[in-house]
Amino acid sequence: MTSYTSDLMRLLDERGYIHQATDAKGLDALAAKQIVPGYIGFDPTAPSLHIGSLVQIMMLRRLQQAGHKPIVVMGGGTGKIGDPSFRDESRKLMNDATIAENVAGIFTVFDRLLTFGTGPTDAVMVNNDEWLGELGYLEMLRDVGPHFTVNRMLTFDSVKQRLEREQALTFLEFNYMILQAYDFVELARRYDCRLQMGGSDQWGNIVNGLELGRRMEGRELFGLTTPLLTTADGSKMGKTASGAVWLNEAQLPAYDFWQYWRNVDDRDVGRFLRLFTDLALDEIARLEALEGSEINAAKIVLANAVTALVRGPEAAAVAEATASATFAGGGLGEDLPVLRLGADGMRIGAALTELGFTASNGEAKRKLAEGAVKLDGVTMDDVGHLLTLPPGAEARLSLGKKKHAIIRG
After folding, report:
1. Domain coverage including residue 100
2. What CA–CA distance (Å, rounded) separates 141 from 154?
């Protein structure tokens, strides 16, 4: 680890957040002598972010914990275009009502993890449509356009990959990097923002922004990126066979969220505890040193800590109790997903797919044939088996050791 003098850079370094920095020594010196407002942008393309964004949210939390000011930028303006970075195709354009609804949903997680207010280190959430929506096209071309060359814009990976694959990159999307760079300039003007942070895929956009700030405003700005977050098996963080792991309860029940962390690879436990919890580093070192079946205790600590931060302490407690009742006591647990059968019942293969345990009836058939499906502990192998229960009666449907649901008549 590099030797830093500021609490901010020491905290980010020792917990594993730093991948690239435009001027680490300069940022360290600045953070040691004054409050540094820093921002990260989030596109409101859905009513919830997923855990792929959680490392960025935690980075803003670390910024505040170290005595600095987090600025959460919702891309209400840029969201009308869509970030082309590393995407194979264009995003669907959103209207103002959808963007506003998504921003409201996303705010709930930030409100748990950051302290908002009007104080010098209190977090603020802003929507870049406030300034981008007011920009006249000719004024934008005149004031910002001269600082960008098409030659350089064509060298960015986000553009090159689309062109190399001969997939359309619209002129609208091509403007995204200019607008994001202008965000940094406007935030510097409005909030004296000196730092932009983001994932490693945002490096080019961040550099664009600080260069534009220097040219237009003569400001010294800084950029910092986190490592590309993958799990120990090389898969992308936040992606599972059944879909994204959403941060909001409306998109993913707390029990499923808790289970994701409970079931992480043994090799990821220490790293995830440093990135996604506030546990002391010496306690994390003790937990990640556990071996064999004892590492499961560390995973429960991880699941409880992350769920408590994102969903609240009560959600974490209920999820752990449900897991305990399901796995240890063989009970149903009160927070498992519930599938109501209706008067006509449902085929067991269709039930597995309806619950999201399998992606298709074909996969359900394979899992049944493998003996991976149990109904109240009894192995089932007939894809056509009709699940029926009297009104109010319950049974437990399981796929493997990790997926469980309540079937209710």
Report:
1. 7-226
2. 18
